[in-house]
Structure formats: C-alpha cells, structure tokens
Design brief:
Elements: E1 3-6, E2 9-12, H1 17-25, E3 28-33, H2 46-55, E4 59-62, H3 72-85, E5 89-93, H4 98-110, H5 115-124, H6 133-143
Helix pairs in contact: 1-2, 3-4, 4-5, 4-6
Amino acid sequence: MLRQLTPSLFVAPQIDADVVAQAAAMGVSLIVNNRPEGESADQTSGDTIEAAARAAGLDYVAIPVSHSGFAPWQLDALDEALAKNGEGKALCYCRSGTRSTLLWALARARAGDSPHVLAEQAAAAGYDLSPIREMMHALASQKG
C-alpha cells in the first residue's frame, strides 16, 4: 500500500489507524493528509488519523488538495512540514496517492529539481506526472 518516492517520502491511498502503526514501524515520523475532509463517506476521518499518529508519537499535518487544482499555499505548507521533519521519513496520503504525488512533484520542481527526474521517481512508484508536466517545467524555469 505504501509507495516510496524517495528514501524519506512515501505516498499512499487512504490510510487507517493500522497503516499509521505500520508507517511508524518503518520509521515514518510525519503523516501528511492531502485529502479534504468528507470527500467520501467511506474515508477515515482526519481526526482519527491524527489521533493514531499522535498516539504513535508521529507528527501530523493536514494539507487538503481538492480536485480543483493546486495553490502556492499548499506547496508552501508541504515544504514547511517536510523541512520541520528534517531527515525523518514522511507519509503523504489522499484517496489514491496521486494528489499527494503531484503536490510533492510541484513543490520539488519549484525548489529546482528536474521535472524529468521527478517523473521517473513518480513512475517507479506507479504514478504519472503528465497532468502537471507543464506546471513543473514552469516552476522549474522560475527557479533557474
């Protein structure tokens, strides 16, 4: 269920308390919820995941991403959460893991990472960055 994008970042579809425990056992120290609350009737609430994370000694942050797209504040919030986590491992999740992956890729492109390398990393984890290819290149060119 957990897919590894980098040595310190995992993404996943909707998680539950059991996955929080699994992530903690893998050395994850931060859970990032990219799913808007109430998006679907069958999703585990953010409050439930946060409680499980805190009980396991993990940090938790919610950065909801709707299907309407990405905003600079979301990239800023992800950058801030990952920076605060330092060298620790993080797990980002949404309904399928796609929005979490896209958000990560946009943040990394904005930081100057190669969109081509980001696309390879995402593909290795089973995700396709083609919906944001132009955005990644625009962000990367602003950095350079």
